[in-house]
Write a structure and sequence with these properties.
The protein has two domains: about 170 residues, 3-Layer(aba) Sandwich (D-Maltodextrin-Binding Protein, domain 2), CATH 3.40.190; about 120 residues, 3-Layer(aba) Sandwich (D-Maltodextrin-Binding Protein, domain 2). Strands 1, 2, 3, 4, 5, 6, 7, 8, 9 and 10 form a ten-stranded mixed β-sheet that branches. About 45% of the residues lie in helices and about 20% in strands. The termini are far apart. The protein is globular. Helix 4 packs across helix 13 and helix 7 crosses helix 13. The protein is of the alpha/beta class. The protein contains 13 helices and ten strands.
Length: about 325
């Protein structure tokens, strides 16, 4: 082999690692397909700020809400797979895989999993006029009055809606879904007594429960929430095996270099594992999640399968 050929081969062998080490060489965009001010937006900005500090380039948040997260997600799917466009996703995306079958993209076809961020429990609450002080009493009431009780959500396919449908399926009760356009309106509906029940974010609804505007019956995680340690989880209070949380993660367009995915995964895990991060998130009712890209890929697939079953049983349809 000539000296020129040997030199070319050596250059090729070191080229890819050098490129990976240099990433990012310019600003990175995180597409958030949800409105400003919501949990996804808040945690995306937190994550972006810390990634910018550690990697030396700005991580710019671009909110592109619309069509149940489809608008922004489609834009991210069509971006160049170079690591400079990322998607902030949630389990609303895994629900949409079944709920909206004719989307212009598919999570498993058009994206690669990068890393999870965190998850938050939900709180099941009822209006104070509902004659049920425990989850068991509410289930008994719902079974005695099939189709008479209502529950609110921020719209079809949202974690609040799916938590309600999973509860109906596992508890064997008939409760009518009342979709609102946004979570604040749904919350107002429960507080005002227009609907009897709702699953809502712990940190948001806990203050309303403390004020006596709603009655908290349970939280939705596997274990009791650190925010409400005296409140049982649904699975221990009457519906064994129940779990429904809001979780967030990061994905990238299919074809993004594995070295870039690995680097981002490691940096996101560093942010999530910081003691200050875990302490701050715990106060908000959120718990950090860390997985390898491979583990997160399996997690996303499992969540898609979980909600596919719920959607088929409930007959849930998109609001369009």
């Amino acid at each position: 082999m000539s000296r020129i050929a040997i030199a070319a081969l050596a250059a090729a062998l070191v080229y890819v690692p050098a490129q990976a080490q240099e990433y990012p060489a310019r600003p990175v965009k995180i597409v958030v397909p949800f409105a400003v001010g919501g949990p996804a937006d808040i945690y995306a900005r937190y994550l972006g700020a810390h990634l910018g500090e550690s990697l030396g380039q700005p991580f710019v948040i671009e909110n592109r809400p619309g069509a149940g997260a489809v608008v922004g997600t489609d834009a991210a799917a069509k971006a160049a797979p170079d690591g400079y466009t990322l998607l902030l996703m949630s389990n609303a995306h895994t629900v949409n895989e079944t709920l909206i079958p004719n989307k212009p993209y598919s999570l498993t076809r058009d994206f690669v999993a990068v890393a999870p961020i965190n998850y938050s429990d939900l709180m099941m609450v009822v209006h104070p006029s509902v004659p049920a002080n425990t989850l068991q009493e509410f289930i008994a009431l719902a079974k005695a009055q099939p189709g008479k009780l209502n529950y609110a959500s921020s719209g079809p396919g949202t974690p609040y809606h799916m938590a309600g449908e999973l509860f109906k399926s596992m508890a064997g009760v008939d409760i009518v879904h009342v979709p609102y356009k946004e979570s604040s309106a749904a919350r107002t509906g429960v507080i005002g007594g227009q609907v009897e029940m709702m699953f809502d974010a712990v940190t948001t609804m806990n203050e309303q429960a403390k004020a006596g505007k709603v009655r908290a019956l349970a939280t939705s995680g596997k274990t009791r929430s650190g925010v409400t340690p005296n409140l049982p989880v649904v699975s221990e209070a009457g519906v064994p095996g129940y779990e429904a949380v809001i979780w967030l993660g990061v994905m990238a367009p299919k074809g993004t270099p594995p070295a870039v995915v690995s680097k981002l995964n490691a940096e996101i895990a560093k942010v999530a594992n910081r003691a200050e991060t875990r302490e701050e998130w715990a106060k908000q009712g959120a718990s950090a999640m860390t997985m390898s890209p491979e583990e997160f890929t399996k997690y996303v697939a499992g969540d898609i399968a979980k909600w596919e079953k719920v959607i088929k049983v409930s007959g849930a349809k998109p609001d369009r």
